[in-house]
Design a protein that fits this description.
By secondary structure, this protein is an alpha+beta fold. It is built from 16 helices and 18 strands. The structure holds flavin-adenine dinucleotide (FAD).
């Protein structure tokens, strides 16, 4: 079938106003949040129902048109970057929160629902959806499940996977599968739902999610600890965890990042210290008071220059917002911002943080580092310019050095942003031949014609 024929068929499935095909309309769908990766798709379609998604997939299968599924396009590994000639299936019009069930502590939503809206809907029932990626105001729940996203509260509450109870999936042949359910316990058959969590749009299209909710914490305390040495901040994190305290948030900003955030957000962050730790504990008021006192004591015994406590909710929200703005703030410094997401065991944090600083000096690059330090998840962020070939070469060599050192320390090439295009050169190295081959066999079994997000994850 010709491209015109495919466009006509898409229009008859979803409506003419749900199909984009002109060169200028396709530009915003040619990239995601990952720097320096671009490709124009053949067309973009915005289905409104699962049946329409299934029909689009059947049409794509019949015409051998590759599909790239897209949520809000905030991904940081190139997962939603189009492959040549592909159809982008964009799910932002399927954004309804279908049901909050306070008796079963669950929430059902379409895949395009915005992450923050999900927590707000839960909050209206005194409930809580904890996973809060820094992008929560714009990312979709479908994208979160497809990337198994983490967030600022991951240390205590875990990641998206820990809250997915059920999924509706459109498979590569257009069949609709329902995986999981509202039962707290279920061991019937293979846990196929888990296969699709973190599958980055390569195995199926998520068209509905059933999420677990938890009671909303009664109290919260937010603190900032300021350091003259990055290693002291890293050692504080290890010491808090070793003291068997599990705060909900232990986020880190280095001097470069804190300076950029302060320029951007003006929240009173000091710009003359080497590291800032954002620490937050939540739960029962008595436990919160006790944990906050212990965390302050540990921070001071690890040479924190100062420890400040937010005086009220508004101030706490402002401090958390400052951390959420880190990427946007860094992105203002240079034309190209390349954000990485390596993760190491927490005992290796100080080693890794020093290695990143030494690598920046060795390759004469500007790297701002921040991240979910309580999870061992660091975001070394290269502030660079993709038009400068020599600088980009040094960026790639520095990145390879950082990823290689991460693996030597027992870490992972990606803690939350996925493999996509950006991390696929290192996937085999991390997984080893047997696991890597097994993953490719799974992909072939579920998507035998390589229709879904081809070229991602595997070489
Ligand atoms: C400022 C900023 C802060 C961020 N902070 C965090 C953070 O703290 N933690 C974190 O984990 N990530 C973070 N991210 C990365 C990103 O926001 C997440 O990966 C998010 O889950 C992507 O959601 P999305 O809707 O934008 O998905 P997209 O970018 O559109 O897609 C991401 C991947 O999921 C696939 N996909 C999307 N929807 C579906 C679906 N319905 N079915 C099947 N596959 C699908 C796509 O094919 C692609 O491979 C951040 C990004 C930015 C820009």
């Amino acid at each position: 079938m010709s491209r015109e024929g495919v466009l006509d068929a898409l229009a008859s499935i979803c409506g003419a106003d749900a199909v984009l095909s002109s060169a200028e309309d396709l530009v915003p769908y040619s990239f995601d949040g990952t720097a320096a990766l671009k490709m124009r798709p053949s067309a973009v379609v915005f289905p409104r129902t699962t049946a329409q998604v299934a029909e689009c997939v059947r049409l794509a299968a019949a015409t051998s048109t590759p599909i790239v599924t897209r949520g809000s396009g905030t991904g940081l590994s190139g997962g939603a970057v189009p492959t040549p000639g592909c159809l982008v299936v964009c799910l932002t019009h399927m954004d309804a929160i279908l049901e909050v069930d306070p008796r079963n502590l669950t929430l059902r939503a379409q895949p395009g629902a915005i992450t923050q809206r999900i927590d707000e809907a839960a909050g209206r029932h005194g409930l809580f959806y904890p996973p809060d990626p820094g992008s929560q105001r714009i990312s979709t729940i479908g994208g979160n499940v497809a990337e198994n996203s983490g967030g600022l509260r991951g240390l205590k509450y875990g990641v998206t996977r820990d809250y997915v109870m059920g999924l509706e999936i459109v498979l590569a042949d257009g069949q609709i599968a329902r995986l999981g359910n509202a039962c707290v316990k279920d061991v019937a058959g293979y846990s196929l739902k888990d296969l699709f969590i973190g599958s980055e749009g390569t195995l199926g299209i998520i068209t509905e999610v059933l999420l677990k909710l938890v009671p909303r914490p009664l109290a919260r305390r937010t603190m900032l600890a300021l350091y003259d040495s990055i290693e002291d901040a890293a050692e504080t994190v290890s010491a808090i965890v070793a003291a068997r305290i599990i705060p909900c948030t232990l986020e880190f900003l280095d001097r470069v990042t804190a300076g950029c955030v302060e320029d951007y957000a003006h929240v009173g962050l000091p710009t003359d210290c080497e590291a800032v730790l954002l620490m937050e504990t939540d739960g029962h008021p008595a436990a919160v008071a006790d944990e906050a006192a212990k965390m302050e004591e540990i921070a001071r015994s690890h040479q924190a220059r100062d420890v400040r406590t937010a005086r009220n909710d508004a101030e706490a929200l402002q401090l958390a917002a400052a951390r959420r703005n880190a990427f946007a703030a860094l992105a203002r410094r240079r034309p190209t911002t390349i954000l990485e997401g390596v993760t190491v065991p927490r005992s290796e944090l100080a080693t890794m943080v020093s290695f990143i600083a030494a690598t920046a000096a060795r390759y004469e690059l500007q790297i701002g580092t921040f991240g979910h330090m309580g999870d061992g998840n660091l975001h070394p962020t290269f502030l660079t310019d993709e038009r400068n070939a020599d600088e980009m070469d040094r960026v790639h060599r520095a990145l390879d050095a950082i990823v290689t050192r991460t693996l030597e320390l027992g870490g992972t090439i990606t803690g939350e942003h996925g493999v996509g295009l950006a991390k696929k050169p290192w996937l085999r190295q991390q997984m080893g031949d047997a696991s890597y081959t097994l993953m490719k066999q799974v992909k072939r079994a579920v998507d035998p014609h390589g229709l879904l997000n081809p070229g991602k994850m595997f070489d």
